[in-house]
């Protein structure tokens, strides 16, 4: 995923926001929250999440995609309540895992304040505890469920830092996308690709876990995660013959 090294040039789209405040329709707030959550997570997981929204008293903002993160948690300050934000475009399994990850930050904050490491033992305990409610075949398909079970033995800081789990979760990204999407690491050096629909880049050298890629319109260099999903710009026949697509 690219890191905007220039800063300040980040596009901010209007966030899709769930306001967990009283509403004037006939629906109760919980019913309304349930309906909204069902759009983003597996239906069987929604009742408990909706319960937690009330129980833990947090505001959930579903935001535009951020390349730097899938979600985040902010503890209460200046009279506001806990806030969790999640990228809107995650598939429902990734969304649920990310949401539970952030709720674990919340319960960890409630139990330990700021005194512990963000992804230390205390957080891991909370995350395992909360996730155990969802590890069922009614909620996750088999591949995700087994991937998650392995992940839960020692949860990494995010599903992004567990490439095995990330690969499994990514398999379930929208079927609506054309077959032209690939993990960046699978493309040969100097392949041209599109990111976010209309920005054209050329793949460059690997630097640790990321690839430095040049945006062709500006010449600026951006760092992309090896597992960033990008759209191939050139027809596949233009790509070197030794290149095989493996999923
Ligand atoms: Zn975290």
Note down, in words, how this protein is organized.
There is one protein chain. A 6-stranded antiparallel β-sheet has the order 5-10-6-7-8-9, with no helix packed on it. Strands 1-2-4-3 form a 4-stranded mixed β-sheet, with helices on one face. A hairpin with a 5-residue loop joins strand 8 (210-215) and strand 9 (221-225). It has 2 domains: 16-170, no CATH class; 181-238, SH3 type barrels (Roll). The protein is α+β, with helices and mostly antiparallel strands and 247 residues long. The protein starts with 15 loop residues before the first strand and ends in a 15-residue tail after the last strand. It is built from 6 helices and 10 strands. It binds zinc ion. Zinc ion binds at residues 101, 105, 118-119, 157-158. Zinc ion (ZN) is lined by residues 101, 105, 118-119, 157-158.
Whole-number mean pLDDT: 79
How much of the sequence lies in strands comes to 15-25%
Number of domains: 2
Bound molecule types: zinc ion
- The spatial strand order of the largest sheet comes to 5-10-6-7-8-9
- The radius of gyration over CA amounts to 20 Å
Helical fraction: 25-40%
- The H-and-E topology, N to C, reads as EHHEEEHHHHEEEEEE
Name the quaternary structure: single chain
Shape: globular
């Amino acid at each position: 995923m690219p890191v905007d090294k220039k800063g300040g040039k980040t596009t901010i789209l209007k966030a899709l926001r769930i306001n967990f405040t009283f509403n004037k329709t006939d629906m109760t707030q919980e019913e309304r929250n349930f309906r909204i959550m069902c759009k983003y997570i597996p239906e069987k997981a929604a009742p408990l999440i909706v319960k937690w929204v009330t129980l833990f008293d947090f505001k959930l903002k579903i935001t535009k995609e951020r390349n730097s993160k899938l979600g985040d948690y902010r503890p209460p300050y200046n009279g506001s309540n806990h806030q969790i934000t999640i990228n809107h475009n995650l598939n429902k399994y990734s969304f649920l895992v990310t949401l539970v990850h952030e709720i674990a930050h919340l319960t960890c904050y409630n139990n330990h304040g700021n005194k512990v490491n963000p992804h230390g033992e205390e957080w891991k305990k909370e995350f395992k505890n909360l996730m155990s409610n969802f590890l069922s075949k009614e909620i996750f398909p088999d591949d995700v469920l087994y991937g998650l079970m392995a992940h839960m033995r020692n949860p990494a800081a995010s599903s992004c830092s567990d490439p095995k789990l990330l690969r499994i979760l990514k398999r379930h990204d929208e079927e609506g996308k054309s077959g032209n999407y690939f993990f960046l690491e699978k493309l040969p050096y100097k392949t041209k690709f599109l990111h976010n629909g209309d920005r054209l880049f050329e793949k460059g050298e690997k630097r640790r876990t990321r690839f430095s890629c040049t945006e062709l319109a500006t010449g600026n260099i951006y760092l992309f995660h090896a597992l960033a999903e990008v759209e191939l710009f050139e027809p596949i026949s233009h790509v070197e013959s030794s290149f095989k697509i493996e999923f």
